[in-house]
Amino acid sequence: MRRREQLLKRGDVSFVRGVCPHDCPDTCAWEVAVDASGTAVDLWGAPEHPFTRGGLCGKVDRYVERTYHPDRLTRPMVRVGPKGSGEFKPVDWDAALDVIGERLSNIIDRHGAEAVLPFSYSGTLGALNGEGMAGRFFHALGASQLARTICAEAGSWGLRYTCGTTASVDSMDAEFSRLIVLWGTNTLSSNLHFWPVVLRAKKRGARVIVIDPVETKTAKAADQWIRIRPGTDAALALAMMHVLIAESLVDEDFIREGTIGFEELSAAVEGWTPARASEVTGIPNDEIVSLAREFAAADPALVRLNYGMQRHRGGGMAVRTIACLPALTGHWRRRGGGVLLSTSAAFGLDSRPLRRPDLMPTPTPRTINMIRLGDALAGDEASLRRAHYRPRPSDPEVASLGPSVKALVVYNANPAASNPDLAKVREGLANEDLFTVVLEHFQTDTADYADVLLPATTQLEHLDLHASYGHLYLSLNRPAIAPVGQALSNAEIFRRIGVRMGLDASLFGPDDESLLKEYLAAQASPAIAPISWERLQADGFARVDVPTPFMPFAEGAFPTPSGRCELYSETMKEDGYSPTPEFIAPAWMAEVTPDSLVCVSPPAHLFLNSTFVNVDRLRKKTGAPYALMHPADAARRGLRDEEEIAVLGAGGRLRMTLKIRDAIVRGTICIEGIHWPKLSADGRGVNELTRQRETDFGGGATFYDVAVRVERSAGA
Question: What are the pLDDT digits (tens) for 124-133?
């Protein structure tokens, strides 16, 4: 903490505790140094936080630079040029609110409140500035609802079907694992603070195995990298279960006491020999057998899942299948054993006191699937029907489509870079009949299409409360500085819009602190009950009140309908799925030809989705977008390292540099994201290639299930 010590010597610097707001499991506690003028001069990870331990990732370490970036939006603006041109003029807040209030009111009067669609995701994970105040506003308005499916939906459904919850183990208990399988996760880029826990486990003798189509930074640092074809994870898990059962490597006591459906599962995996799985996954037969045996012998083993491995057509079933493994081997019985996807459910937080769904009219407004934004904005009935949220095969077709979307309010998101099928998204955003409001820090690709662009505060400038999906600490963020320019928090912006539209001002609370205090006091979860507002103010964070070690399934008490881990699920059968695990082939398998490849697009190491892309230091260090290809695939196409290529998909064409490395599975191409299209040489982004197709569970996104062709770029 040399930086902190140096600033302490100045004598004119104070320190404010807060928490990183971004979509990352680490939810790092931080400390902001503020000088006598009220300017933030530095920040670092809170040294006393058990998970953060004083460090921040390379992205968030530049957060002060991002907050004071010269391109920061500091005044409300209204559009003066064509949509997409990014031409605006500054106005004051009253003028901006007048335009928004008048336009939204007219749309509701003419078309009904469902013609208004909110669009957001996890630009901030704060309870209030994420969906808290926005939820109140849109619920009171009666606007369409948004199914926020773009990241974690498929896997979350898979775990709930199998274990009844996504809560499973404390990530810090991985230290006691003897085998850690990092399956579909680049931990060193997307879960950095979990890696020291892994290293502590290694010092105790643990082995670390990475299962991934790409040799990521994490794969290079692991004891073993298992190369797997994209979207074939369930086939590997089925073969592992085949070996476990055939060789009697299972924990019969745990199966008897803590599971249901073992006989049905045994029948389902009987045909999934390692040889069959090898043909599907590309993993050698012996490697599959060895992995299964090592998994059974570890005392215990932990599978750390992440979201990359579920972004294909069978992603939900893949997570459901993998989640059966520790039940067969009884790893849930031992500290550090089981499956870990998310810790968020352990908090037991009830969002209703903030978001107020009780304010919605009856009947409940329709729900639009966010990954089908292009369809939702298209204007024709067939597209709008596809955009309606139907998370399960058993869900009926919607009886009433409702009106076309006439107003879009975007916050905490950048869909013109991050959504699938960008061409169709841009086409919808460019519609002059669509009224679009964007709350942002910068003029992103999405902001260029706004009718009204509003400057939002960063995490250094507002109050909020944060849970985590990677550890068990609830954290308070205190504002460290005054808002930059005329920026307002999301909460204050929705408060002002609501009042301007004639909604009852009392719905939005007297101030943000009062709302957050009421929210915390309203929690009924025993895990939250001992945590007071005063405690959070004093310490900055507090561990939820769950046992140490946190081993909720050690006795097999799963919160499923049967009270057991459901190897066979009657609920899944009722919902239109196979009740036992199965392999659902990714869509690319039916589309790939001898000339095509499957494309995956994980996040670049120094980007977080589309955040931080415009921070010059990080963008320069990352470099221009490039495509990674196996030498055999490049040789077959007569391509050379570092030449310019064109990547062609159903939705568009990209130009970029080719890198040829033996660090990727054959038949696969990797394009890191998410670069802003407007900052790329050809004005395009990787989601030109992706489609609005849905996963099997929950209607999630299939970003890593794309067949593409590659050719030498014209003129190269």
Answer: 999 999 999 9
